[in-house]
């Protein structure tokens, strides 16, 4: 019973977080959250977050994967209390609503058994397709519920 | 009961002795008998195999006819897979220009089901796959020119070269995963491997490369895998790419400009930037001192 209550409380916590911030997870020393809007590369710079790749994840399990050079093409916008990404240069899949998490990859992060926190996280998703536009390479993923 | 067993055996036999034509979610089977009933095309080939001249006459079903038979037209390339997991690809343009056949007869001798062979006289015979079990339609992969390129020799400096890397004996090398895992965020994908002489393969990591080994042989890195037929092993590996990230062997290529020609990049930037923010001219040879400490370069638009 206690376990069930803890799980419910954790779920509630995640839900409340999802409404007001974006969790930054993956290959970073400690997980943090961002509440700012604006250009994502600038937000990362102000928070000292480095990323060679990112996986942007929405509440429904939809996600997209882009590399370092494309991060500056993303704007974080808040509408009706929910975060979304907007871009005019990247493929349309990068306009994603209800984002709650950005998982970052850094190649110098220590590996365990050939894995980093990022590679573990992305392995929970199924690749749906890939696209390239104006030299930007994008992949679309969906959380694998199998 | 006997009847059921006979039917099961017949179904298994029919499946084993046919080629699966996979187009998206639709799979059709074509049997040897059906291939024999199609209009037959004759092709003459002339090959020099290690100094031995081989002239052959091949008769078989045209690949174009097979595609028409199954109403397959929406694809960019076909992937042929053999019983022992050998894989080759032909683009739509190659199929249209070269009119390949699935050969059923060679020099008046019927080929059995296990030896049905793709014959394309205009390309090297290492691509004439034998024992075809499936032909799969594919759309063109998105493989843009890479944004980040890592120097393989710098990664290898941190990898221990060991004698007899499993399961290979009497040679030394290291595991492919040790070279790529520090630089790729996700290994569950196809890697594009290119040898110094331009032979290229796109290989699925889990299926072919997880247990692959790079054998070090007189400054050459030869990729071998217990999960790949020997014919697919890549001699003198020069380049590896997945998504927009690549690893290249400086030793095997002269400079980035020539590398771009080998790989068919459509454009090249005026300069690349190394890890210390130094500008590098793509025409500058890899043996120039400026390249000595370069670990990675990024493409600058």
Word description of this protein:
The complex is a heterodimer of chains A (146) and B (301). With 146 residues, chain A is of the alpha+beta class. Chain A has one domain (2-143). Helices cover 25% and strands 38% of the residues of chain A. Chain A is built from four helices and ten strands; from the N terminus they run αβββαββαβββαββ. Chain A has helices at 2-20, 40-46, 68-71, 117-122; strands spanning 22-26, 32-34, 38-39, 53-58, 62-67, 75-79, 82-86, 99-105, 125-133, 136-143. In chain A, the strands form two sheets. A seven-stranded mixed sheet of chain A has the order 2-1-8-4-5-10-9. In chain A, strands 3-6-7 form a three-stranded antiparallel sheet. In chain A, strand 9 and strand 10 form a beta hairpin. The longest helix of chain A has 19 residues, at 2-20. Chain A is globular and about 40 Å long. The mean pLDDT of chain A is 87. An eight-stranded mixed sheet of chain B has the order 15-14-18-19-11-22-20-21. Chain B has a five-stranded mixed sheet with strand order 2-1-10-5-6. In chain B, strands 3, 4, 7, 8 and 9 form a five-stranded antiparallel sheet that branches. The radius of gyration of chain B is 22 Å and the shape is elongated. Chain B is α+β, with helices and mostly antiparallel strands and 301 residues long. Chain B has helices at residues 2-16, 32-37, 63-69, 92-98, 152-156, 176-180, 205-209, 256-263; strands spanning 18-23, 26-31, 40-49, 52-62, 77-82, 87-91, 101-106, 109-110, 117-119, 132-138, 148-151, 162-163, 172-175, 190-195, 200-204, 213-217, 220-224, 237-242, 245-248, 272-274, 279-280, 296-299. Chain B has two domains: 20-138, Oxidoreductase, molybdopterin-binding domain (Sulfite Oxidase, Chain A, domain 2); 148-299, no CATH class. In chain B, strand 7 (101-106) and strand 8 (109-110) form a beta hairpin. Mean pLDDT of chain B is 89; it is low at 9-15. The A-B interface holds A 52-53, 67-69, 105, 107, 111, 114, 116, 118-119, 122-123, 127, 130-132, 135, 137, 139 and B 142, 144-145, 147-148, 177, 181-183, 185-189, 243-245, 298-299, 301.
């Amino acid at each position: 019973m206690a376990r069930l209550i803890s799980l419910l409380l954790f779920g509630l916590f995640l839900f409340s977080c999802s409404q007001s911030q974006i969790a930054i997870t993956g290959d970073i020393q400690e997980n943090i959250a961002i509440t700012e809007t604006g250009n994502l590369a600038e937000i990362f710079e102000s928070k000292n977050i480095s990323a060679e790749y990112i996986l942007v994840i929405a509440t429904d399990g939809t996600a997209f994967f882009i590399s370092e050079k494309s991060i500056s093409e993303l704007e974080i916008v808040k509408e009706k209390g929910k975060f979304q990404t907007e871009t005019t240069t990247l493929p349309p899949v990068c306009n994603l609503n209800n984002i709650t998490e950005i998982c970052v990859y850094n190649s110098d992060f220590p590996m365990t058994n050939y894995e980093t926190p990022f590679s573990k996280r992305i392995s929970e998703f199924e690749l749906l397709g890939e696209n390239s536009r104006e030299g930007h390479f994008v992949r679309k993923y969906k959380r694998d519920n199998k | 009961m006997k009847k059921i067993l006979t039917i099961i055996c017949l179904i298994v036999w029919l499946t084993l002795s046919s080629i699966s034509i996979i187009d998206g979610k639709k799979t059709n089977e074509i049997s040897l008998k059906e291939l024999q009933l199609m209009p037959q095309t004759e092709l003459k080939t002339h090959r020099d195999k290690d100094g031995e001249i081989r002239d052959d006459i091949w008769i078989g079903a045209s690949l174009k006819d097979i595609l028409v038979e199954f109403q397959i037209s929406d694809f960019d390339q076909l992937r042929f897979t053999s019983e022992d997991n050998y894989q080759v690809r032909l683009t739509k343009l190659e199929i249209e220009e070269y009119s390949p056949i699935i050969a059923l007869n060679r020099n008046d001798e019927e080929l059995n089901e296990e030896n049905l062979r793709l014959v394309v006289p205009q390309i090297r015979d290492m691509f004439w796959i034998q024992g075809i079990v499936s032909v799969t339609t594919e759309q063109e992969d998105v493989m843009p020119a890479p944004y980040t390129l890592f120097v393989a020799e710098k990664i290898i400096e941190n990898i221990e070269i060991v004698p007899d890397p499993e399961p290979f004996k009497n040679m030394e090398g290291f595991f492919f995963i040790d070279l790529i895992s520090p630089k790729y965020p996700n290994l569950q994908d196809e890697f594009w491997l290119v040898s110094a002489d331009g032979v290229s393969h796109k290989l699925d990591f889990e299926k072919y490369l997880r247990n692959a080994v790079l054998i070090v042989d007189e400054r050459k890195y030869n990729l071998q895998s217990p999960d790949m037929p020997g014919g697919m092993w890549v001699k003198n590996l020069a380049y590896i790419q997945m998504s927009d990230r690549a690893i290249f062997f400086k030793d095997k290529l002269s400079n980035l400009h020539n590398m771009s020609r080998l790989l068919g990049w459509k454009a090249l930037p005026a300069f690349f930037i190394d890890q210390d923010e130094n500008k590098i001219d793509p025409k500058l040879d890899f043996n120039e001192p400026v390249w000595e400490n370069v670990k990675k370069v990024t493409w600058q638009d």
